[in-house]
Amino acid sequence: xxxxxxxxxxxxxxxxxxxxxxxxxxxxxxxxxxxxxxxxxxxxxxxxxxxxxxxxxxxxxxxxxxxxxxxxxxxxxxxxxxxxxxxxxxxxxxxxxxxxxxxxxxxxxxxxxxxxxxxxxxxxxxxxxxxxxxxxxxxxxxxxxxxxxxxxxxxxxxxxxxxxxxxxxxxxxxxxx
Length: 177
Prior knowledge:
By secondary structure, the chain is α/β, with parallel strands linked by helices. The protein is built from 8 helices and 5 strands; from the N terminus they run βαααααβαβαβαβ.
């Protein structure tokens, strides 16, 4: 059996914990939290880069843009505290060779979140895609056509995007943190 997991809000508490921490660190550097939240809502549907987000906020607030890396590191250093440890304990028992991550986002930022969170060792392959996950899911289903595949995501839109005729061995689980 193979398992595919989404990262944000499945393996990593992005919405409730990471963002709260991000806004707090930005506030510690003098960035108005309401302005940061407002700007985030404008840019989040694009390939979100935390470094670009920080840089633009500093620029808008007339702050020193040279602090971007320092702020980024302060935010990212806490990623290990936002992992879904209960789910990761189960994944560890499944075996690295049976587990994959398919996640959306800007490549560098997503890789950094995954690296800083410490979960790389649990997965045999990690895919970061800007939009649809379906082609990679189809590839995994085809490669392991004689095995059951379980796909865990927190957004139903990724299940609705799939042509299940292409993945008769796929079982979807909608996950809520």
